[in-house]
Amino acid sequence: MRIVIIGAVAAGTSAAAKARRNDETAEIVIYERDSYISYSGCGMPYYIGGEVENARELTPRNSAFFKSKYNVDILTGHEVLSIDAKNKILEIRNLSTGEILKDSYDKLVIATGASAVLPPIQGVEADNVFTLRNIGDMNRIKAYLNEHAPKKAVIIGTGFIGLEVCENLKGLGIDVTLVERLPQVTPGLDSDMAVYVEDHLRKNGIPVLTGASVTRIEGNRVILEDEREIEADFVLVSTGVKPNTDLAVRAGIELGITKAIQVNEKMMTNIEDIYACGDCAEQYHVVTGKPVYRPMGSTANKTGRIAGDVVTGGDLAFRGILGTGIFQIFGMTVALTGLSEREAQKEGYEVEVCHNIKPNKPEYMGGQEMVIKGIADRATGRMLGVQIVGFEGVDKRIDVFVTAITFKAKAEDLFHLDLAYAPPFSTTKDPVMYTGMILDNAMSQGRKLITADKLAALIESGEGYQLIDARVSAQYEKDHIETAVNLPHGELREQLKDLNPEAVTITYCNKGVTGNAAQNILLNHGFQEVYNISGGHKQFRKVRK
């Protein structure tokens, strides 16, 4: 059997390695148009910034390695021009010599990856404008920085890569300005979590322009739609990627609704004996079961392994993704998994949302606050998604949530997890458990939550309500929500006679715990409709300054 793979980065080489483990007799050939293979794309921002000193650390394997270890032939600098699916023939160009070759296959795996999206910006082809998608891009950027020593940079787009490069350029002493056409940074987050990232960027000296579109680049000036100008010796366009599907489309291979190659759980396309994996292929979402496109190195490796197994007779099958992501920016860790609130609402879920602000471990052990946004389905209690910003322990918590959501856990189940505890690592009730408790209390125990945005809308509506600040007087006097009255938790029982038990009542404290205690008192004394502000005064002020 002859297995031909197109593409030799994460998915293609994973497919080849797994195929060889399963079948020692198969002929396995990979064609790759680039000169670099099996590289760590996620490490590129850190080489640019100097944290990774040697580029070879990101490209540890070459064609000789795969030939020696796996008996796989990798031909770099070879571009597949066409696929004759009926006759199982490929046409290939040797990019060094221009020679046109033909090859045949029994099984074909397409792992052509993705390319950077270039928005319609005049001047985007200039010498000081870059994208960062592969090792060649990385080397060009590094050479430009070394040769020209730019002082000012603009990054267009605030996704993971854009922010990671931002941090690394700042570490080199370059002034960086971020430009984002959406009204918030980090588009994968909900706006009430993205605000933490934006504030952190500003605190670290990064000007952030949201709701701004770049129309043209002229020399060392980036010009916005409203004619504002930003000085920039260096520009990075980081506005997302698109799957490389032209070759597949010409061969009659069908694309999915995301415009990536449509595959089933076995990585099979609509054409027999042709498979696709990695960033060129569509995935499906664990929660909704619907097609999504979330290109990630981890998913590419996984789908490549599945393709390599299936083409050699194995029975591995893809189980979907949650769109999990994590990155670090100036010491802050940002992580997300599952559906965002806006995505869940778009899918028709009636969602319950909480903002849980807790330290990752006791403060006496140096614990630092993290903000966990939990999203659950009110109808079933199932966890739908989680977003976290914090400084320590974020990676640990997001992976627990990933596991829980993958196995369809309900919010109430999180409290019952037997998580590891000792003061150097966690609080006695871990923030994961607290998140489940808060959501379950809201959905099944009558301890309703109200978000900052919904409270702001209520205040602006002119409808009747009573808002209780349950903190001590000194905290209230320092700052409080404008329409609130101060009834400290310890004195609340004595003040009940002055409140209307039939009015909509909202309680709050700094982060939510004492507000919940006040809410319990009111409910237990017959108050009909009582809400606690999700995340308390801190979350309200962060969102509604």
Note the main attributes of this structure.
4 domains; 545 residues; FAD/NAD(P)-binding domain; five-stranded parallel sheet; 25% strand; alpha/beta
Largest sheet: spatial strand order: 3-2-1-7-18
Total number of helical segments? Answer: 17
**CATH architectural designation of the largest domain:** 3-Layer(bba) Sandwich
CATH topology of the largest domain: FAD/NAD(P)-binding domain
Instruction: Let me know the CATH homologous superfamily of the largest domain.
Output: FAD/NAD(P)-binding domain
| Rg from Cα | 27 Å
Sequence stretches where pLDDT stays below 50 over 5 or more residues: none
| Mean pLDDT over the residues | 96
Helix content: 25-40%
Structural class: alpha/beta
The number of domains is 4
Biggest pleated sheet = 5 strands, parallel
Which outline best applies?
Answer: globular
Question: Would you count the extended β strands for me?
Answer: 30
Q: Proportion of β residues?
A: 25-35%
Query: What is the CATH top level name of the largest domain?
Result: Alpha Beta
- Separation of the first and last Cα atoms: 65 Å
Protein name: NADPH-dependent 2,4-dienoyl-CoA reductase, sulfur reductase
InterPro entries: FAD-bd_OxRdtase, FAD/NAD-bd_sf, FAD/NAD-binding_dom, FAD/NAD-linked_Rdtase_dimer_sf, Pyr_nucl-diS_OxRdtase_dimer, Rhodanese-like_dom, Rhodanese-like_dom_sf
Keywords: FAD, Flavoprotein, Oxidoreductase, Redox-active center
GO molecular function, one term: oxidoreductase activity
